[in-house]
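Q: Okay, next protein. This is DUF2794 domain-containing protein from Cypionkella aquatica. I've checked the sequence twice, so it should be correct. Can you predict the 3D structure?
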Amino acid sequence: MTVQTPTPFPPPEPLPDQVTFDRHELGAILRLYGQMVAAGEWRDYGLSFLREVAVFSVFRRTAEFPLYRIEKRPKLRAKQGMYAVVGMDGFILRRGHDLASVLRVLEQKLIRPVD
């Protein structure tokens, strides 16, 4: 009778230290940001890269609370979608799997009636 040593399990993949936006995601967000700055709606932004969420915050003035937060939460990828737009009051305006469709809720703010 031969004794076999058990096959070790592969080590678990380490969790990322922080969640970030990739180049294409940041490009889409900054394209919208540029349009809103040109329209005079937004003036400043802030980025936060945390362990579970990446946040792009939009400000009307530097010293205020953010008007909107664009969040990426990879843990919600299989459930509700990892992208969300959160309003100043904390309500989620739109959540989904595709960043472009989630950002459309903010693009609608650019459409105004012409006098």
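A: Here is a summary of the prediction. The two ends are 91 Å apart (CA to CA). The chain has two helices and five strands.
Q: Noted. On to the next one.
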